[in-house]
From TrEMBL:
InterPro entries: DRG, G_OBG, GTP-bd, GTP-binding_2, GTP1-OBG_CS, Small_GTP-bd
Protein transport listed as a keyword: no
GO MF annotation, one: GTP binding
Domain of life assignment: Eukaryota
OBG-type G domain ranges (all copies): 63-286
Keywords assigned by UniProt, alphabetized: GTP-binding, Nucleotide-binding
Descriptive protein name: OBG-type G domain-containing protein
Source organism per UniProt: Zizania palustris (Northern wild rice)
Cross-referenced CDD domains: DRG
Entries under Pfam families matching the protein: MMR_HSR1, MMR_HSR1_Xtn
Length: 286
Protein backbone atom coordinates (compact mmCIF):
# COMPACT_ATOMS: atom_id res chain seq x y z
CA UNK A 1 0.00 0.00 0.00
CA UNK A 2 1.38 3.41 -1.00
CA UNK A 3 1.69 6.48 1.23
CA UNK A 4 -1.38 8.20 -0.24
CA UNK A 5 -3.51 5.10 0.26
CA UNK A 6 -2.35 4.79 3.87
CA UNK A 7 -3.18 8.45 4.50
CA UNK A 8 -6.67 8.06 3.05
CA UNK A 9 -7.20 4.91 5.09
CA UNK A 10 -6.28 6.67 8.33
CA UNK A 11 -8.43 9.69 7.44
CA UNK A 12 -11.36 7.34 6.86
CA UNK A 13 -10.77 5.73 10.24
CA UNK A 14 -10.69 9.15 11.91
CA UNK A 15 -13.95 10.08 10.21
CA UNK A 16 -15.58 6.89 11.51
CA UNK A 17 -14.33 7.42 15.08
CA UNK A 18 -16.55 9.36 17.43
CA UNK A 19 -14.81 12.22 19.20
CA UNK A 20 -15.07 11.85 22.96
CA UNK A 21 -12.89 11.42 26.03
CA UNK A 22 -12.50 7.69 25.44
CA UNK A 23 -11.20 8.07 21.87
CA UNK A 24 -9.00 11.17 22.17
CA UNK A 25 -5.83 9.08 22.70
CA UNK A 26 -6.55 6.95 19.64
CA UNK A 27 -7.31 10.04 17.51
CA UNK A 28 -4.10 11.68 18.70
CA UNK A 29 -2.06 8.70 17.56
CA UNK A 30 -3.83 8.69 14.17
CA UNK A 31 -3.03 12.39 13.70
CA UNK A 32 0.63 11.68 14.45
CA UNK A 33 0.65 8.85 11.90
CA UNK A 34 -0.81 11.11 9.21
CA UNK A 35 1.75 13.84 9.96
CA UNK A 36 4.60 11.34 9.61
CA UNK A 37 3.23 10.03 6.31
CA UNK A 38 2.78 13.54 4.90
CA UNK A 39 6.40 14.31 5.78
CA UNK A 40 7.47 11.15 3.93
CA UNK A 41 5.36 12.22 0.97
CA UNK A 42 7.36 15.45 0.62
CA UNK A 43 10.73 13.73 0.78
CA UNK A 44 12.55 13.22 -2.55
CA UNK A 45 12.52 9.64 -3.91
CA UNK A 46 15.33 7.37 -2.75
CA UNK A 47 18.30 7.57 -5.08
CA UNK A 48 17.30 11.05 -6.21
CA UNK A 49 19.87 13.83 -6.08
CA UNK A 50 17.20 16.26 -4.87
CA UNK A 51 16.84 17.97 -8.22
CA UNK A 52 13.65 17.95 -10.23
CA UNK A 53 11.37 19.85 -12.50
CA UNK A 54 10.71 22.64 -10.00
CA UNK A 55 10.67 26.32 -10.93
CA UNK A 56 12.34 28.04 -8.00
CA UNK A 57 13.75 31.50 -8.76
CA UNK A 58 16.50 33.37 -6.95
CA UNK A 59 15.34 35.56 -4.10
CA UNK A 60 15.64 39.26 -4.81
CA UNK A 61 14.86 42.43 -2.90
CA UNK A 62 13.69 42.96 0.67
CA UNK A 63 10.89 40.38 0.66
CA UNK A 64 9.12 37.76 -1.39
CA UNK A 65 5.38 37.47 -1.97
CA UNK A 66 3.76 34.40 -3.56
CA UNK A 67 0.47 34.57 -5.47
CA UNK A 68 -1.47 31.38 -4.71
CA UNK A 69 -4.87 30.50 -6.11
CA UNK A 70 -7.00 28.33 -8.34
CA UNK A 71 -6.60 28.69 -12.12
CA UNK A 72 -8.10 31.79 -13.77
CA UNK A 73 -8.64 33.93 -10.68
CA UNK A 74 -6.55 36.89 -11.90
CA UNK A 75 -3.04 36.19 -10.57
CA UNK A 76 -1.29 36.97 -13.86
CA UNK A 77 -3.29 40.14 -14.41
CA UNK A 78 -2.51 41.31 -10.89
CA UNK A 79 1.23 40.68 -11.38
CA UNK A 80 1.20 42.71 -14.60
CA UNK A 81 -0.69 45.59 -12.98
CA UNK A 82 1.58 45.78 -9.94
CA UNK A 83 4.99 45.14 -11.51
CA UNK A 84 4.68 45.78 -15.24
CA UNK A 85 6.01 42.27 -15.86
CA UNK A 86 4.12 40.49 -18.63
CA UNK A 87 2.46 37.28 -17.52
CA UNK A 88 0.15 35.73 -20.08
CA UNK A 89 -3.50 35.99 -19.11
CA UNK A 90 -6.40 34.33 -20.92
CA UNK A 91 -9.95 33.16 -20.32
CA UNK A 92 -8.92 29.50 -20.18
CA UNK A 93 -7.41 27.72 -17.19
CA UNK A 94 -3.71 26.95 -16.58
CA UNK A 95 -2.44 29.84 -18.72
CA UNK A 96 0.61 30.16 -16.44
CA UNK A 97 2.70 26.99 -16.46
CA UNK A 98 5.81 28.18 -14.63
CA UNK A 99 6.88 30.71 -11.98
CA UNK A 100 6.99 34.28 -13.32
CA UNK A 101 8.72 36.85 -11.05
CA UNK A 102 8.11 40.59 -10.94
CA UNK A 103 9.40 43.42 -8.76
CA UNK A 104 7.34 46.02 -6.89
CA UNK A 105 9.27 49.24 -6.26
CA UNK A 106 7.92 51.14 -3.26
CA UNK A 107 10.11 54.09 -2.20
CA UNK A 108 13.47 52.41 -1.51
CA UNK A 109 11.93 48.97 -1.03
CA UNK A 110 11.99 46.16 -3.61
CA UNK A 111 9.43 43.39 -3.16
CA UNK A 112 9.59 40.27 -5.32
CA UNK A 113 6.16 39.11 -6.49
CA UNK A 114 5.82 35.57 -7.85
CA UNK A 115 3.01 34.53 -10.18
CA UNK A 116 2.63 30.78 -9.65
CA UNK A 117 0.58 28.31 -11.70
CA UNK A 118 -2.92 27.67 -10.41
CA UNK A 119 -3.23 24.76 -8.02
CA UNK A 120 -6.10 22.34 -7.68
CA UNK A 121 -7.56 20.19 -4.93
CA UNK A 122 -5.08 17.42 -4.19
CA UNK A 123 -2.05 19.62 -4.91
CA UNK A 124 -0.37 18.54 -1.67
CA UNK A 125 -0.55 14.95 -2.93
CA UNK A 126 1.20 15.82 -6.18
CA UNK A 127 -1.72 16.60 -8.48
CA UNK A 128 -0.94 19.11 -11.21
CA UNK A 129 2.23 20.99 -10.27
CA UNK A 130 1.00 21.44 -6.73
CA UNK A 131 4.14 20.33 -4.92
CA UNK A 132 6.38 22.70 -6.87
CA UNK A 133 3.99 25.61 -6.34
CA UNK A 134 3.72 24.99 -2.61
CA UNK A 135 7.50 24.56 -2.33
CA UNK A 136 8.00 28.07 -3.71
CA UNK A 137 5.29 29.39 -1.38
CA UNK A 138 7.17 27.98 1.61
CA UNK A 139 10.19 30.12 0.70
CA UNK A 140 8.10 33.31 0.65
CA UNK A 141 7.62 35.94 3.35
CA UNK A 142 3.96 36.51 2.55
CA UNK A 143 1.24 34.62 0.71
CA UNK A 144 -1.43 36.41 -1.29
CA UNK A 145 -4.25 33.93 -1.70
CA UNK A 146 -6.13 35.14 -4.77
CA UNK A 147 -9.79 34.13 -4.71
CA UNK A 148 -12.73 34.66 -7.05
CA UNK A 149 -15.32 36.75 -5.20
CA UNK A 150 -18.10 35.17 -7.26
CA UNK A 151 -17.19 31.62 -6.18
CA UNK A 152 -18.08 29.89 -2.94
CA UNK A 153 -16.07 30.26 0.26
CA UNK A 154 -15.13 26.61 -0.19
CA UNK A 155 -12.21 27.61 -2.44
CA UNK A 156 -10.50 29.37 0.44
CA UNK A 157 -10.97 26.35 2.69
CA UNK A 158 -9.61 23.97 0.04
CA UNK A 159 -6.49 26.07 -0.56
CA UNK A 160 -5.87 26.48 3.18
CA UNK A 161 -6.18 22.71 3.65
CA UNK A 162 -3.72 22.02 0.81
CA UNK A 163 -1.15 24.45 2.23
CA UNK A 164 -1.52 23.15 5.78
CA UNK A 165 -1.09 19.56 4.54
CA UNK A 166 2.50 20.38 3.57
CA UNK A 167 3.39 22.27 6.73
CA UNK A 168 2.36 25.86 5.97
CA UNK A 169 0.56 27.57 8.87
CA UNK A 170 -1.28 30.67 7.72
CA UNK A 171 -1.63 33.64 10.08
CA UNK A 172 -0.61 31.56 13.07
CA UNK A 173 2.27 31.86 15.51
CA UNK A 174 4.47 28.94 16.60
CA UNK A 175 3.02 27.03 19.58
CA UNK A 176 4.48 27.91 22.95
CA UNK A 177 5.81 24.41 23.56
CA UNK A 178 9.41 23.69 24.53
CA UNK A 179 10.58 20.36 23.11
CA UNK A 180 14.05 18.86 23.27
CA UNK A 181 15.22 15.34 22.53
CA UNK A 182 17.60 13.74 25.02
CA UNK A 183 19.85 10.70 24.96
CA UNK A 184 18.75 9.35 28.34
CA UNK A 185 16.45 10.16 31.24
CA UNK A 186 13.08 9.19 29.80
CA UNK A 187 10.33 11.71 29.09
CA UNK A 188 9.90 14.80 31.26
CA UNK A 189 6.42 16.33 30.91
CA UNK A 190 5.53 19.68 32.50
CA UNK A 191 3.12 22.56 31.94
CA UNK A 192 2.98 26.13 33.20
CA UNK A 193 -0.80 26.36 32.87
CA UNK A 194 -3.75 23.94 33.10
CA UNK A 195 -4.13 21.88 29.93
CA UNK A 196 -7.51 21.02 28.40
CA UNK A 197 -6.45 19.39 25.10
CA UNK A 198 -3.37 17.31 25.97
CA UNK A 199 -2.43 15.36 29.07
CA UNK A 200 0.71 13.43 30.02
CA UNK A 201 -0.60 10.09 28.72
CA UNK A 202 -1.53 11.50 25.30
CA UNK A 203 1.83 13.24 25.02
CA UNK A 204 3.62 9.96 25.81
CA UNK A 205 1.61 8.09 23.18
CA UNK A 206 2.37 10.65 20.46
CA UNK A 207 6.08 10.64 21.32
CA UNK A 208 6.02 6.84 21.26
CA UNK A 209 4.53 6.98 17.76
CA UNK A 210 7.63 8.95 16.73
CA UNK A 211 9.83 6.42 18.58
CA UNK A 212 10.95 9.14 20.98
CA UNK A 213 11.61 7.73 24.45
CA UNK A 214 13.84 10.43 25.91
CA UNK A 215 12.73 14.04 25.69
CA UNK A 216 11.78 17.15 27.64
CA UNK A 217 8.37 18.71 26.96
CA UNK A 218 7.13 21.94 28.53
CA UNK A 219 3.76 23.51 27.66
CA UNK A 220 3.69 27.29 28.07
CA UNK A 221 0.11 27.55 26.74
CA UNK A 222 -3.00 25.40 26.42
CA UNK A 223 -1.92 23.92 23.09
CA UNK A 224 -3.68 21.24 21.07
CA UNK A 225 -2.57 17.83 19.82
CA UNK A 226 -1.95 19.33 16.38
CA UNK A 227 0.32 21.98 17.95
CA UNK A 228 2.35 19.31 19.73
CA UNK A 229 2.75 17.32 16.50
CA UNK A 230 3.87 20.46 14.66
CA UNK A 231 6.56 21.08 17.28
CA UNK A 232 7.78 17.48 17.14
CA UNK A 233 7.90 17.52 13.32
CA UNK A 234 9.90 20.75 13.46
CA UNK A 235 9.43 21.57 9.76
CA UNK A 236 6.44 23.90 9.87
CA UNK A 237 6.52 27.35 8.28
CA UNK A 238 4.46 30.08 9.95
CA UNK A 239 3.64 32.72 7.38
CA UNK A 240 1.35 35.70 6.96
CA UNK A 241 -1.44 35.35 4.43
CA UNK A 242 -3.73 37.97 2.91
CA UNK A 243 -6.94 36.76 1.25
CA UNK A 244 -7.47 38.83 -1.90
CA UNK A 245 -10.96 38.58 -3.40
CA UNK A 246 -10.81 39.54 -7.07
CA UNK A 247 -13.70 40.19 -9.52
CA UNK A 248 -15.80 42.15 -7.04
CA UNK A 249 -17.39 43.91 -10.04
CA UNK A 250 -19.53 40.81 -10.69
CA UNK A 251 -21.04 40.49 -7.19
CA UNK A 252 -23.41 42.66 -5.18
CA UNK A 253 -22.31 45.43 -2.83
CA UNK A 254 -23.53 43.47 0.22
CA UNK A 255 -21.28 40.55 -0.72
CA UNK A 256 -18.33 42.89 -1.23
CA UNK A 257 -18.92 44.46 2.19
CA UNK A 258 -19.10 41.03 3.83
CA UNK A 259 -15.84 39.87 2.21
CA UNK A 260 -14.03 43.11 3.04
CA UNK A 261 -14.88 42.77 6.74
CA UNK A 262 -13.27 39.35 7.10
CA UNK A 263 -9.89 39.26 8.90
CA UNK A 264 -6.79 39.59 6.68
CA UNK A 265 -8.96 40.13 3.60
CA UNK A 266 -8.95 42.59 0.70
CA UNK A 267 -11.41 43.12 -2.15
CA UNK A 268 -10.15 44.17 -5.58
CA UNK A 269 -11.11 44.17 -9.22
CA UNK A 270 -8.32 43.73 -11.75
CA UNK A 271 -10.90 44.28 -14.50
CA UNK A 272 -11.62 47.79 -13.17
CA UNK A 273 -7.98 48.29 -12.14
CA UNK A 274 -9.08 48.70 -8.53
CA UNK A 275 -6.03 47.34 -6.72
CA UNK A 276 -4.82 49.10 -3.60
CA UNK A 277 -2.36 46.66 -2.05
CA UNK A 278 1.05 48.26 -2.66
CA UNK A 279 1.01 50.12 0.63
CA UNK A 280 -0.42 47.10 2.43
CA UNK A 281 2.37 44.83 1.14
CA UNK A 282 4.98 47.27 2.41
CA UNK A 283 3.35 47.54 5.83
CA UNK A 284 2.96 43.77 6.22
CA UNK A 285 6.55 42.99 5.28
CA UNK A 286 8.26 45.83 7.14
Amino acid sequence: MGILERIKEIEAEMARTQKNKATEYHLGQLKAKIAKLRTQLLEPPKGSSGGGDGFEVTKFGHGRVALIGFPSVGKSTLLTMLTGTHSEAASYEFTTLTCIPGIIHYNDTKIQLLDLPGIIEGASEGKGRGRQVISVAKSSDLVLMILDASKSEGHRQILTKELEAVGLRLNKRPPQIYFKRKKTGGISFNSMIPLTHVDEKLCYQILHEYKIHNAEVLFREDATVDDLIDVIEGNRKYIKCVYVYNKIDVVGIDDVDKLARQPNSLVISCNLQACYILCLLYQLMS
